[in-house]
């Protein structure tokens, strides 16, 4: 069982719809530990770095417009197999196809405006975390809950 970190963005629609608390609450209740969090507006340059795999795709202009349209909350969570755990909690990309019980399945109907980003591999998590956070902005702490929820 690998202890992993995952980089999460609560996208502009989550902020605009006042769903950040709800989503963070789900992550915390699952047992994931918050080890970094900040609010920022994603610039076009940052968007291109983050979504470098998509820059040449036909949907990128819309993705860029959406992700830079307002503030986001960037979060780093830590936990056992955190990357796949978070991806499971997010649901499929398209909210219409996401299962009930997932974040996108419960709160969204869109393929693009879909509330949350989560790293899709530990390597992506390391790359994306370095885009949004300086090393000193991440915290390390032990918690008595660790042994109960992991
Ligand atoms: P994310 O990277 O944001 O966690 O989402 P994902 O893995 O579920 O989906 P991905 O294929 O990586 O796409 C990145 C984001 O681009 C937008 N998108 N729009 N209009 C479209 O066809 C389309 N496809 C993707 C979504 O915001 C998606 O989350
Ligand atoms: Mg992705």
Structure explained in plain terms:
With 150 residues, the protein is of the alpha+beta class. It has one domain (3-141): Alpha-Beta Plaits. Helices cover 40% and strands 20% of the residues. The chain contains 8 helices and 4 strands; from the N terminus they run E-H-H-E-H-H-E-H-H-E-H-H. It has helices at 12-16, 20-30, 44-50, 60-67, 82-90, 103-107, 122-132, 146-149, and strands at residues 3-10, 33-41, 71-80, 116-118. The protein has a 4-stranded antiparallel β-sheet. The longest helix has 11 residues, at 20-30. The radius of gyration is 15 Å and the shape is globular. The mean pLDDT is 97. Ribavirin triphosphate binds at residues 54, 59, 62-63, 93, 111-112, 114, 117-118, 120. It is an enzyme of class 2 (transferase). One of its GO terms (cellular component) is cytoplasm. Residues 3-140 form the Nucleoside diphosphate kinase-like domain. It catalyses: a 2'-deoxyribonucleoside 5'-diphosphate + ATP = a 2'-deoxyribonucleoside 5'-triphosphate + ADP; a ribonucleoside 5'-diphosphate + ATP = a ribonucleoside 5'-triphosphate + ADP. Its cofactor is Mg(2+).
